[in-house]
Specification:
Length: about 240
């Protein structure tokens, strides 16, 4: 089924064994990670983790994120991260945690030839400013956090479509549908023409359910309820 997809699939995570497993799959075109995923995976040494990842995965793009609050230090981190491999994109958040814009830095790094992944993009102004900052970019990404947009009751497809139209078919900047919540999001992202969707192993593993017979799936669900009730030895009277 994955061979029928036009959208590229990126695996999102920070567990080294899982990243290696995902990277080995032909249908996975790239990988992403972030400090939150790394912390959850127990990563304590950023450079050591990245070095180990890149020693195993050399032929697919990988995005690593800066974490400083200071613009000058953020630039130093970005240059250092970019030096780790030719397949590395540097994730720069649209703002720091104080809400201060990072677009000038993104523009500066882009002009220095660093491949950027602008991350945590959600609003229309952020989309437009990301495009302006990356106007001279090569092989860069704009990660629209569609899942978090959906969490607010908004349709993320509208924001992704807006970004794609504003890019006017740019070959150097690709749009990522980030933070998906369910398998359906892959098909929603493809329908609007998004270039890439990045998803966790849990969502990507659900690809095997694509097109599954619903009556069969219903029966399996009832059997699960029955099995769990028996194993729990529930009694009402």
């Amino acid at each position: 089924m994955t061979t029928d997809l036009r959208i590229k699939l990126f695996a999102d995570g920070a567990d080294l064994s899982e990243m290696k497993s995902m990277a080995s799959k032909e249908f996975i075109s790239g990988l992403t990670t972030n400090p939150t995923l790394m912390r959850k995976a127990g990563v304590t040494d950023y450079r050591e983790f990245a070095t180990e990842v890149l020693s195993c995965i050399k032929d697919k793009p990988i995005s690593f994120e800066v974490f400083s609050e200071d613009v000058a230090e953020m630039k130093v981190q970005a240059i250092e991260i970019a030096s780790w491999g030719s397949n590395v994109n540097v994730k720069i958040p649209v703002t720091n945690s104080r809400g201060e814009s990072n677009f000038d830095l993104i523009r500066e790094l882009t002009l220095e030839g660093i491949k950027i992944n602008v991350t945590a993009v959600m609003s229309y102004p952020q989309i437009e400013n990301s495009i302006l900052a990356l106007s001279d970019a090569s092989e860069s990404y704009i990660s629209i956090f569609a899942g978090r947009i959906a969490d607010t009751g908004r349709d993320p497809s509208v924001y992704v479509e807006h970004c794609l139209k504003s890019l006017k078919g740019s070959q150097s900047i690709q749009v990522i549908w980030a933070s998906p919540r369910e398998l359906l999001n892959i098909f929603q992202a493809e329908e609007v023409g998004c270039n890439i969707i990045t998803a966790t192993k849990e969502i990507l593993n659900k690809l095997e359910l694509y097109g599954k017979d619903l009556d069969e799936y219903s029966l399996e669900t009832v059997q699960m309820f029955n099995r769990d009730a028996k194993e729990s030895q529930y009694r009402i009277s």
